[in-house]
From TrEMBL:
InterPro entries documented for this protein: HotDog_dom_sf (IPR029069), PAAI_dom (IPR003736), Thioestr_dom (IPR006683)
Source species, domain of life: Bacteria
Enzyme Commission number(s) of this protein: 3.1.2.28
Species per Swiss-Prot/TrEMBL record: Muricoccus pecuniae
Protein name: 1,4-dihydroxy-2-naphthoyl-CoA hydrolase
GO function term, MF aspect, one: 1,4-dihydroxy-2-naphthoyl-CoA thioesterase activity
Transmembrane residue ranges: none
Amino acid sequence: MSSAPIWKKNATPAMLMARLANSAVSHLGIEITEVGPDYLRAAMPVDHRHVQPWRVLHGGISVVVSETLGSVAATLAAPEGFHCVGMEINANHLAAVPEGGSITAECRAFHTGRSTQVWQTEIRRADGRLACVSRLTCAVVPD
């Protein structure tokens, strides 16, 4: 993967978090922490809002984290006058994350085309172990 900047729109974590205020993202406590030259990073505590009855991270929450980062990243990589929406997402859950823990996520592009984009997100536990890997396909649509 390249480390050359791929963003077509300027953004900081603070700008992105302001845009995501009063949404599922803010309700769940997902925080975008870094806008790198070709990736986005986020963090989230794992508390009662995020767990299944067995007190581990619910897989659907991992998908929300992945879709959030992928859609935001895709929109930043799209030309002015366009935004991106998810078309398909898959996720492989590889390790449990216990309640009281936390996750970090990193999202990078596989493909940034004119009409579609594909993004992969890796979600890791606090100990660094890969908990989930997810791939999102987005449509690039006019504003």
